[in-house]
Prior knowledge:
This protein is of the alpha/beta class and 397 residues long. The protein has helices at 4-7, 30-39, 46-61, 72-85, 89-94, 119-124, 141-147, 171-180, 197-200, 226-233, 247-262, 265-283, 311-314, 318-325, 355-372, 381-394; strands spanning 14-16, 65-69, 104-108, 129-133, 152-158, 185-188, 205-209, 220-224, 289-295, 303-309, 332-334, 343-346. The structure holds pyridoxal-5'-phosphate (PLP).
Amino acid sequence: MTDIRASRGLRPVINVSGTMTALGASIVVREAVAAMTAILPEFVEINDLHKIASPVIARLTGGEAGFITASCSAGITLAVAAAMTGNDLAAIERLPDATGLKNEVIIQTGHVVSYGAPVDQGIRMAGAKAILIGQATSCYPYHLDGAINEHTAAAVFVVSHHTVQYGLIALKQFAEVCHARGVPVIVDAASEYDLKIFLEQGADIALYSSHKFLGGPTGGIVAGKKQLVRDAFLQNRGIGRGMKIGKESILGTIAALEAWEKRDHAAIRERETGYLNLWKQTLTGKPGVTAQIEADPTHNPLDRLRVTINPQETHITAWDFADALAGGSRPVIVRDHEAEHGYFYLDPCNLHPGEEAIVASRLEEELNKARASNAIIASPYEERYQARIDALMRWPD
Ligand SMILES: *Cc1c(COP(=O)(O)O)cnc(C)c1O
């Protein structure tokens, strides 16, 4: 099979960075591809299609109902809007004008992160105000309780490696405080494997991305309490219109959820562990390189290889090494958002068979090149950061 990327002049990137929107999210499972191909040429009554998604989402998440929207990010906005308007269709059409509605949404300061766009913007898009509680690394139940008043519409809780991982209120207690005051809890669990635990721990709505671990098409799954899910669904007559999802992605997500139920998760973990061991072996004994297998920070059943670089010995910094790997005719994109600390990660969960060997040989190739260099390759980190913004500002040139 020819690679469609070549005919369009696109680089054949190998993704060892994780599930990244910027790289096309994930490998869509074949069950979802087949469902999407089958429905695309057909007409279908869209609300009926949405209806058949609900019991599938309910079964997998343990929620009462569910629907599919454009993205998890859209799900945040729609769930917040639902908590503001209820089923008032006139209010739904008036948003983001929130006159007369509860319009405050509470979130721990340590959860206000960027997944490519700011979490709090997803809240504000519904016409709500984000009320930040506590400080970046410290938040107590009294902060939460003290912020709840007659304007409070909802509280948002984010589960992500991006958030501060200590000193904050855990979900169970967060939900207890909210529920004692009648405030619904919306959990952004976009990138989490466990489809049940957040509703079990007290979320009224849990949100997931279709296109991350599930291997679905781009989409967002809204699951939870039936009335709140319904009120979020009704937003499709208002601000949800611009977050519309097509028939193919609704059915594709249903198919991905059903495939997820049948997936041999243990076998996949074993294959991924094999990749990690191969890369670790490749790097073991290379001067200035330490390779360590590390668990996922939010407890997903997934390990990554942390590659720590001592530039004195490798003759290259971690970030220049990452950039070198990303160049050439077989670009390998590593997980490098912490590269300023002198390490990056290799994530094994988005590879086609055989790509693990290419990753191993690219690691060796670039390390050997750097070792052969007389000077240490060390570009200023701030310039690399700035270069990304500069490139963006030149788009589409
Ligand atoms: C990826 C991610 C999002 C965004 O999800 P999309 O479905 O791509 O909009 C939101 N929150 C967190 C924590 C994420 O990891």
